[in-house]
Structure formats: structure tokens, C-alpha cells
Amino acid sequence: MKRSLEGEGVAMPLEEEGQAAGEELVLLARQRLLDAMAGAARRRLTVLAAPAGFGKTVLVRQWAARQAGLPMTSVTLRPGDDAPRVAARLFAAAARLGADVGVPHPGWIPAPGGGGLGPAFLGTLRDWLASVGEAILVLDAFDAPQDPSLAADLDEVVRRAPAGIHLVVTRRSAFPGRHLRLADGTVVIDAQDLAFTADETQRLVRKVSGRELADDEVDALVRRTAGWAVGIKVAATSLRGPAAAHQVIENLSSERQVTAFLRQEVLDRQPLRVRRFLVRTAVLDSLDSALCRVVTGEHAAGLMLHVLEHAGALVRRGDGEEESFAHHELLRDVLRQELHVTEPGIEGELQARAAEWHSRRGEPEHAVRYLAEAERWDALLDLLDHHAPTLFEQGDAARLAAWIEAIPAGGIYRRKRVGLRLAYAHALSGATHRAEQVLRDVERHRLLPGERVVVRALRAGWAFHDAPPAGTVDADADATLAALDAGGLGEIPNVLGMTSPAQLRTMAAGARALALWHAGDVAGARLGLAALVSRTDLYAPWKVRLVGALALLEAWEGNLRLAQRHGSRALTLAASTGLLEHPSATDARLALAHVCREHDDLAGADELLKAAQSVADGADRPAALAVHAVERALWYLAAGQAERGLAEVRAHEVEGSPAAVAPVVDARLRAAEARLLLAHGDLDHAGRVVEGAGGLTAPLAEAAVHLAVVRHDIEAARLVLKAWPLPDDDRPELERELWAAVVDLEDGRRTEGLARAAEVVTAARAEARVRLFLDAGRPAERLLRALARVAPTPWVHQLLEAAGSPVGDGPGLGLSQREQEVVRFLPTPLSCAEIAGQLYISLNTLKTHLRTIYRKLGVSGRPDAIRRAEELGIA
């Protein structure tokens, strides 16, 4: 079909591109493209370069209809053209532009049978065009001719066109290409420019079908067609009917018009070798040259991809990757239909080759997709066994589980094989409750000895994640270790590359050590963890996890130097193995946060806690989140934000899983809550928390003593000190010794209290434990101030300064010796007359001393003076 555009002296026959789709494209004016074409009548060269069906000719027609004044004509080139045909068209075009061409001269007419236009014709054509003056010449389908000599001569036509000739060239191949050389002022409008936008797509659909698509439907159509004009036009036509938009979009590649256009304009134009290459590569998501070579067996795959891109065969270059290409989505669907017809049964083999290639490159996600689509389930399980450790290290355990869940179970053998891997993947992602459900299903089938030990080791490994009751872990861990020691297990299945005998032993022994600590057996846990972390053959995530757990254990036991050493070691190992953002590094960060807080480095602790929470939240690690709640609550206590600390504890109680909180963690959480309530002044609530906690642990004992001291219940405080659980290794518990010193001082046993205090201060200095004293509040401050009076040291002064009560500053420090003696009697039940008698002074003299004392202490009476003197440690 041909059409002539008439416009003020313009006669321009143009062949409509896209008519192979069954209907000509509706002429939808796209102003942004017309604006881009606006200067073509003044430029030397304007190029429209895009594959078939992008609307190049439509745009030229729309632009031409708006031109006036300059003569304009068009020459359409075709794949089968030879030099005589092209020369005849160029001759006719020059004549239409007004050139005096006369009668064709035999000397410049190209000979048939191959070859180019020849120098004689090119020179004559240039003279003809020069005689026209200014004019517009459109060379449509410029790259269609296949004869290399003819193509080169056409290049000369463009390169040597007279200055007054304004050229508009349309082509399917990329620009610049083999036919044209860039020239100054050249404007190129390519497929990216010609692609329909969402707004233009909506307008075209509305014009053709009368329907209005939802925004997500428009976006889906643009994605499916990549803005390809023919595809959008066919979809718009189909939408005239009652079919749902999503069905039309999904089935677009099955539409007769689309299929016919792609076969005629892309597939049928290719030589047999290229066609076979296109069809076989349709199974691929991306067309890497090396991948295409492996899948198709085509050694010149890289060259072929470049040729196809250049030829405009709807093979586009990938975003940001110079050597990666992709089929247009609709073309790919048509090519796969062709593959099913021409080579039935080969698709799965091609996909398996692609999977193997991606697997060798360490790209399991692509390999999984190809094997799943090919339904090669056993090969997929083998692939996952190989790549699972790396995926776990990269934090992709949840995705690993999703892949395994998509595998159909099949017979009993595969049910067990799939089930074991799914259970391990769920456990690795922290979803141990889902893993347990899968294991129960697996255990319905008879398990071989090797399979049973794999199941028991995994159950023992719950302690790596959710810390169930210690007895369950002990039983499974002990059974696993006993079975491995006894031997005779036969073949132990390689589940996700993590169930070698050595790895099973590590899982069982590590889980047992963690369970001991969670249950309160610190000495046994320390011994077990130390033995494991000394090994050099541990899987990196397990080692980071176990060293971090040892760091946290030592931090909570007050061994800050050891905790610092182990925590730093764990993070160094994590950094060297790419595991810094892995859940296994969480305990190390929490341990180091504890150390920073004890050193009164709240900024450092805050940074570590934020990093730990970010990873724990993303990995669904309830045990780690419970520890984080403890440390963050204590951080708020140290920062003087008791209300926020209480909110942290309560938020965890609502969001956390009670079954996942180990006893040692729960005790610390309750103790933190009690201490925050004390800081908030809610003594009754703090008492209820302590009483309702169950057993008395060291952290709870500390909170209980603190509460008793604040209530001035010295007898109750001594009962708690007596029941305070001590470490198995007979080390002095500094928290206990500090509160024993406080109780002695409060009970009037000043000498004993200060002696204890001196020992605590010396031991705390070795570990730089500042928060030990600061978090104990006013009672510890009074103790330190009293110690500063009898045994002043720089460390004691530093502690007082950290508490905001430096020695030598503030009211109360300028009391005379006699005034200090008076102050010591104020908390007693003696009356003023009785105190004067004890000091052998008159009542008036005592009253004078009291007025001076009240002024120096900044108080207005005896009760306030007593409280202030107690705070300063001088009463």
C-alpha cells in the first residue's frame, strides 16, 4: 500500500511501515518527537534508527505533513534492491525535486548483476541535487540493501550530498553503523526515543479501543512491549473486545498480527544459521556471548549478537553491560514457539546448559530458574547443595527455602531429600518453627541412620537461633555426638553442603555449649565454646557465631577485656569472609556494645546496637533481638532515659516470642526492667518485677539489693546478699561486692564498707568498668564520696566526675571539721539539745552551725540536709 502526502507543493509517496501487522498504524501525533524532528529542514542529516515496527515512517509522514516551502521527496529501499533499481529511484527523486535530469546517459547507468552505483552515477546525482538548491530528501529503509558495494555507495550519497540538500534517513540498524559516518550536526532519534511512553500508550489505547486503562495496566503494557508501536497498536485493537486488559497483555505474543509481523520482519529475513541461533537463544533471559556459545554451540556467538543488534532484529543491548544483550520480550515468545515446533524436546537440554554455565560462574539464582523451568528437580537439588553455604553467607537463606519449597516432592526418596533440605533452609533463615513442621513430615517415612543423625543435629542446632529448653538441645546434641562417635551410620546425606560428619559434630557441640549458657551453666558453656573456637577448620559463619557468643558470655560475666578480645576477633573474621552483615556477627556486636556501655562510651554502644538490630530484624532472630532488648534498655538507663528503656522492654514483651527467650536472657530482661523502674521512682512496680521473676540470678539480685537500699531496708538487703548466686570459679562478683559495701556503709559499718569499696574500685579499674558504679545510682555515689575522703585516688575522682559529682565542686564541700561532725548526727533520732550535749557545745552554737550547714548544702531544713548529706556520702 502506498500513500501520498500533499502539503503546499509537497508530493511525497511513503510506504507505511508496520502494515504487515494487518492494519496501518493509527497516526497518533506525539509532539515530543515532532519537536525533535523540527530542525530537520535546516540540518544536513537527521537519522531515525530503530527496529521494524517502532513507527519511524509514521513520524516522518507526520513531520512531512507540517513542512512548507521546500521541495521534498522520498526514496524507499528494499532488501532485494540492486544498483540499477536504486539508481532508477534516485533518478526519479531528483526529477521530482526539480532537477534537470534530461535523458539517462548510458555511461552512468549501473550495470545489472551486482556492484555499486559507480563513480559516474554518483557524480551525476550530486550535480542533479546541487542544481535543485534547497530541498529535503528522505531515504527510507536506508540499510535494507544487502549488496556491500551498493551500501557503500549509498553511504557516499549521504556523505557527499550538496550543502542545500537536507537528508532524513530511516534505518533498522543501530547508528552509527557500517553504512553511515557521523557528521557534525547530525541528530539521531533511536528506539529509546521512539518507544511509547505510558501517557502515549494510554492515548493510543483510548483512541483505538475507547477504553481507559488503569495505571498499573498501562505500565504492564509498556513493559511487555518495551514501547514497541506495533505491539501497543495490536493490544489496543484487541481491547475493543470484552477481554480483561491483563489477559490481552499476557497473550499479546499469541496474537496473529504480532506473530506474523515478527516472523515476516525479523525471523524470515535471517539466514538459516542466524535463525537457528535466534530460536535456540530464546530460552535465555540475557544473551551473554559466552553463554550463547555454550547453549547453542555457535562459536561466532559474540559476532552474531553484534550483527543482530546492528541489523535491528529486536536484539537490544543490556543496561550498563556492553557485552550483554536481550531479546525483545514478544520476539522471545515467538521464538520459543518456533523452538517447540522445529526442535521439540531440546528446550530442557538448552536450559540445563545455561544452568551449568551460571553455576560455574557462581550465579545460582539464574541456574535455579533455568533448572526449575526445565523441571530437572534432582539436578536442582544438587545445585542447591553446592551453592547453599555461599547463599547462607550472603544472607539468602530465606530465598533458598523458597526455591526448595517450589520443588515437587515426588516419591518417598525425593520427599525425604527435599524435606531435609527445606528444614535446614528454614533453620538457617531463623524460621525454626517451620523447620520443625517439615521435620515431622519427614519423620513419617522410615529414615536411614545417616538421615536420622542429620535430623537430630538440626534439632540440636535450634540453639543457634531460638534457644529452646536446654533439655531438648542436650538430648539431641548428645545423641548426635554419640552416633557420630559410634559410627556405622552408612551414607550421611549431604544436605545443602552442611552435613559432613565434622560439620554435624560442630553443630551438636556448639548447640550444647550455647544451651548450657542459656540455662545458666556459665563454666560448662565457656569450656565448650573455647574448645570449638580454637579449631581452624570451622565453617566461617559457625566460627563467627561461636566466637561472638563467647564474647557475649564474657561481657555478661563482667570480663570486659576478654569480651573485647573475642568480639573484635569475631568481627575481624566476619570482615575477612564477607559476613559483617550476616546474622552470625550479631552476638559479637552486642558483646562489644555491652563493653562500650560499661566503659561509658554510649556513642560507640549506640552505633553497635543499631547495626545489630538491623541485621537481627532482617534475619528473624528472636534470640538476638531479646539480647538486643536487654542491652538497649540498659543503654537507655545509662543515658538517663528510663521511660524509653521501659518502652523498649515492653515492646519486646509484645513483639518477641516468649518461647525463644533463654532463661539467662529473660533474667537480665527482668533485671533491666526493675532497674529502670527504680530510676523512674516506681519502687512498688520494681518490687513486683523482682518478686515475679522466678529464681534469683545475679542481675536480679543486684536489682533487689538496690531496691532494698533505696527503701532503707538494710535487713532485706543483707538477706539478698546472702542468697546472691556466686560464680562457679570462686571469682569475686563485683556487683555483689559493690552492694555489700553500700549496705555496710548504710548500716553504719563505715570501716568495713570502705574496705570493701576500695577492693571493688581496684578490681573495676582493671576492666575500666565505669557503669558498674554509675548505674547503681546515689547509693554508689555516696560510697565513692566517702571513699574519696579517706583514700582518694585519681580513679575514684574520675568515677565521681563521671557521676556528675566531682570532688571539690558543689555545695557541701566547704564544711568545717566541726560542721562535718554535726552533719554525722543529723540522721540519728537525737534532738538538737541531745546532739549539742554529745558535742559539748551550747544549743545556740549548734543552731548557728546548722544554719551554716543548711546554707552550704543548699537546703532549708534537717530532713533535706539528711538526704543531701547521704547523697554526698558525709552523713
Distance between the termini: 111 Å
β-strand number: 10
Number of helices: 44
Strand content: 5-15%
Coarse shape:
elongated
Work out the helicity level: 55-70%
Unreliable parts: 1-26, 177-182, 808-812
Main β-sheet: number of strands, strand sense, barrel status? 5 strands, parallel
Q: Taking all residues together, what is the mean pLDDT? A: 86
Q: Spatial order of the strands in the main sheet?
A: 4-5-6-3-7
Cα-based radius of gyration, to the nearest Å: 42 Å
Counting helices, strands and paired strands, the structural category is mainly alpha
Structural features, described:
With 875 residues, the protein is mainly α. It is 61% helix and 5% strand. The protein is built from 44 helices and 10 strands. Strands 4-5-6-3-7 form a 5-stranded parallel β-sheet, sandwiched between helices. Strand 1 and strand 2 form a beta hairpin. Helix 17 runs antiparallel to helix 18 (377-393). Residues 1-26, 177-182 and 808-812 have low confidence and may be disordered.
Brief overview, please?
With 875 residues, the chain is mainly α. It has 44 helices and 10 strands. Helices cover 61% and strands 5% of the residues.
Q: What topology emerges from the helices and strands here?
A:
Blueprint: E1 2-6, E2 11-15, H1 31-37, E3 45-49, H2 56-65, E4 72-76, H3 83-96, H4 119-132, E5 135-140, H5 148-159, E6 165-171, E7 187-190, H6 191-194, H7 198-209, H8 215-225, H9 229-238, H10 245-250, H11 256-267, H12 272-280, E8 287-288, H13 289-296, H14 301-310, E9 315-317, E10 324-327, H15 329-342, H16 347-360, H17 364-374, H18 377-393, H19 397-405, H20 412-428, H21 432-442, H22 449-460, H23 470-486, H24 501-518, H25 522-533, H26 540-556, H27 560-576, H28 586-598, H29 602-619, H30 622-638, H31 642-655, H32 663-680, H33 683-691, H34 698-710, H35 714-723, H36 734-746, H37 750-767, H38 771-774, H39 778-790, H40 794-802, H41 817-825, H42 832-839, H43 843-857, H44 862-871
Parallel strand pairs: 3-6, 3-7, 4-5, 5-6
Antiparallel strand pairs: 1-2, 8-10, 9-10
